[in-house]
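User: quick one, sequence for these tokens?
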């Protein structure tokens, strides 16, 4: 042992300097020096051992979303690097900052066919916001600082650092161990809006007759909920959200319209968008799902767009006013400008929002009260709304859970209470992301909602959940099919169901084998009692709900292929 700081020790100290308290990851032989440094040094970092690297990245994602701090995950070379990649690309495309550290073979072994050799920089390059290999130990601290700067400034995103074995053992100058405290949380170094663009947006909104605000994930990432509420109140404009934008406004707010688009929207919300004359997109990409393949809103609208990424603005709609800025700063400036204008026209948002909710809840209430078997997903949503506290966090996989929670669960507080992976929609996200969310926000109840397809992707992490005794309640919508795909075959391919069904699994028995307290529910009359008991339990729980498949349900989805 030497008194000289090594690269592995420097990595630990740089994470510590950036305020990192949690790291999610999985051991490997190329990571041994880094693990040894974590074992020997006094650093205050809690390392959580996961069962595979993909879920380590999803845990870091969930952690980042609820804390406002970059999530950190790590894994070994070769297969570890390929396994961690899905979580990196999901976070990056969702503008969620995570740092993936993957150890690597020694730089001196490259090109000599060492076990697990892989061009990690080339692999991660197209899929991360910033990425490099730490080939020179003397540059390690500076490049870690660059990674945190990239994650937290501009539009947040994912970064990757390859950490070769010889770099971990090479010397590093201790005087280089420092961090910029601004980059410990996101968004850092916010960009202010152009005053002329703000003035023009205010003028158009003040003179509109039927304006609407559509929020993507940007307002929640930016912490712009209060600023948004002020602008909406001044205009009396209804506020709609994408699935990722839920939490921008409490959905019990009189101006909240709910989710729009093909996943979670309904004819009433679509009609509200189609009737608008001016549309303000805030932190929203106006992608295929939100706009029902760019048909709603139509091309006849006046479009105003706020986004931290200049490439998003105008990508899909001709834009009258482009505001390339942080969402909170832009909305703050817009509120000031609107306050100075005389005769701001009320957009009658309360009535417009109430009409949309009235149409949606009338249908939902009937379905939620139905005694059908298999159980309707609406019944599960209704029970959870009744028994969960307002501060609960719900993490939902794609497939069955996402559209039902997006359309029908009415979030009573603004902020990050709903998480789902909308960028690439990989199955198996919710279980791990819920664990990261719980670690980041341990004082609230966390729910992981998944289909049985997703359960099969992720069930190994129940061991992790039990080992760390996380009081998360998992809900499985069990219908023994890849439901979204079967619904697409049902709707658009002549009901030719091909290779989408699988055998039913006793998910409660599987979870019980891991040590999770579990129930199976087939009668909707038992739902409330069982779910309440599961939520109140002080350890991991699972409720396996034998549920209606999507292709037979009244799912709030207008198109299955968007």
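Assistant:
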């Amino acid at each position: 042992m030497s008194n000289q700081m090594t690269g592995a020790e420097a990595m630990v100290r740089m994470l510590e300097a950036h305020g990192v308290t949690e790291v999610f990851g999985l051991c490997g032989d190329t990571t041994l020096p880094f693990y040894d440094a974590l074992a020997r040094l006094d650093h205050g970092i809690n390392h959580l051992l996961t069962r595979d690297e993909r879920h380590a990245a999803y845990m870091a994602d969930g952690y980042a979303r609820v804390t406002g701090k970059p999530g950190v995950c790590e894994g070994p070379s070769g297969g570890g690097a390929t396994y961690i990649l899905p979580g990196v690309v999901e976070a990056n495309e969702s503008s969620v900052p995570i740092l993936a550290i993957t150890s690597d073979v020694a730089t001196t072994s490259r090109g000599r066919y060492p076990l697990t050799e892989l061009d990690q920089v080339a692999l991660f390059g197209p899929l991360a916001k910033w990425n490099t290999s730490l080939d020179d130990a003397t540059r390690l601290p500076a490049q870690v600082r660059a990674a945190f700067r990239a994650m937290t400034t501009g539009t947040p995103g994912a970064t990757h650092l390859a950490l070769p074995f010889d770099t971990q053992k090479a010397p590093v100058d201790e005087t280089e161990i420092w961090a910029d405290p601004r980059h410990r949380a996101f968004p850092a170094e916010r960009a202010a809006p152009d005053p002329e663009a703000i003035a023009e947006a205010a003028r158009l909104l003040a003179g509109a007759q039927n304006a609407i605000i559509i929020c993507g994930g940007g307002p929640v990432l930016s912490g712009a909920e209060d600023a948004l509420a002020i602008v909406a109140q001044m205009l009396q404009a209804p506020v709609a959200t994408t699935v990722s934008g839920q939490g921008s406004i409490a959905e019990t707010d009189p101006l909240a319209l709910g989710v729009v688009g093909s996943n979670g929207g309904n004819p009433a919300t679509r009609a509200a968008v189609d009737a608008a004359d001016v549309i303000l997109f805030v932190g929203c990409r106006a992608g295929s799902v939100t706009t029902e393949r760019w048909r709603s809103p139509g091309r006849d609208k006046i479009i105003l767009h706020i986004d931290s990424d200049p490439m998003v603005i105008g990508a899909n709609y001709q834009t009258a006013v482009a505001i390339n800025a942080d969402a909170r700063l832009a909305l703050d400036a817009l509120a000031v400008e609107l306050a100075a204008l005389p005769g701001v026209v009320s957009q009658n948002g309360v009535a417009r929002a109430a009409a949309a909710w009235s149409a949606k809840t009338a249908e939902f209430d009937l379905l939620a009260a139905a005694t059908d078997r298999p159980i309707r997903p609406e019944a599960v949503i209704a029970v959870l709304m009744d028994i969960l506290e307002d501060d609960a966090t719900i993490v939902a996989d794609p497939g069955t859970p996402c559209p039902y929670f997006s359309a029908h669960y009415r979030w009573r507080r603004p902020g990050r209470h709903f998480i789902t992976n909308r960028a690439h929609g990989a199955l198996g996200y919710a279980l791990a992301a819920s664990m990261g969310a719980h670690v980041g926000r341990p004082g609230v109840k966390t729910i992981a909602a998944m289909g049985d397809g997703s359960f099969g992707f992720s069930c190994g992490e129940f061991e992790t959940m039990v080992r760390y005794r996380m009081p998360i309640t998992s809900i499985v919508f069990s219908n023994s099919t890849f439901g979204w795909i079967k619904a697409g075959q049902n709707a658009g391919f002549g009901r030719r169901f091909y290779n989408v069904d699988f055998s039913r699994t006793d998910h409660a028995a599987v979870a019980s084998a891991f040590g999770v307290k579990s129930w199976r529910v087939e009668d909707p009359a038992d739902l409330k009692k069982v779910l309440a008991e599961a939520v109140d339990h002080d350890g991991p729980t699972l409720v396996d709900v034998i549920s209606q498949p999507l292709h037979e349900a009244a799912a709030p989805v207008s198109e299955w292929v968007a």
